[in-house]
Hints:
The protein contains six helices and no strands. By secondary structure, it is mostly helical. The protein has helices at about 1-15, 20-35, 40-50, 80-120, 130-140, 140-150.
Amino acid sequence: MILEIVGFSFAMVYQSNLESVYRTSLSTVLSTALNQTDTKVLDIFNDLEVSLTCCGVNGLSDYNGHEPKNINCYRYQKGCADELIKIMKNYIPIIGVSLGIIVLFEIFSLICAIRVAILLKDSPVQHYNPAFSNNLINMTPVKRRKGYQKLK
Length: 152
């Protein structure tokens, strides 16, 4: 529950820093992949470009003379960072509110559990009543009752 509260707080506080974090992280990943010709990362970035219809982090200029894998990259003017930031800004409030509701539900459940524990602690001790099991036997259908009697 503490981690959820911390996550909720970070989601609300750092929402404004989201743009710089994504932009710098994606720029570092793309430039490193281009310099080291890391095909796995470039393939993932290509999939990202295709699914978001974007090019590079800030645009085609991020490729610095390298040929982008996505041939449609020349048509797109927008960078993938802008698209990702737009998606995240749409969903962060939803995630934050969901976390807040879950935390409130957990706090309510904890209060109820504590209340039940206090009530059980203060209740008088009741011992097992064997008459209860006899009542269950009498409620079963006759065929089963007869079978139960044979087992004794």
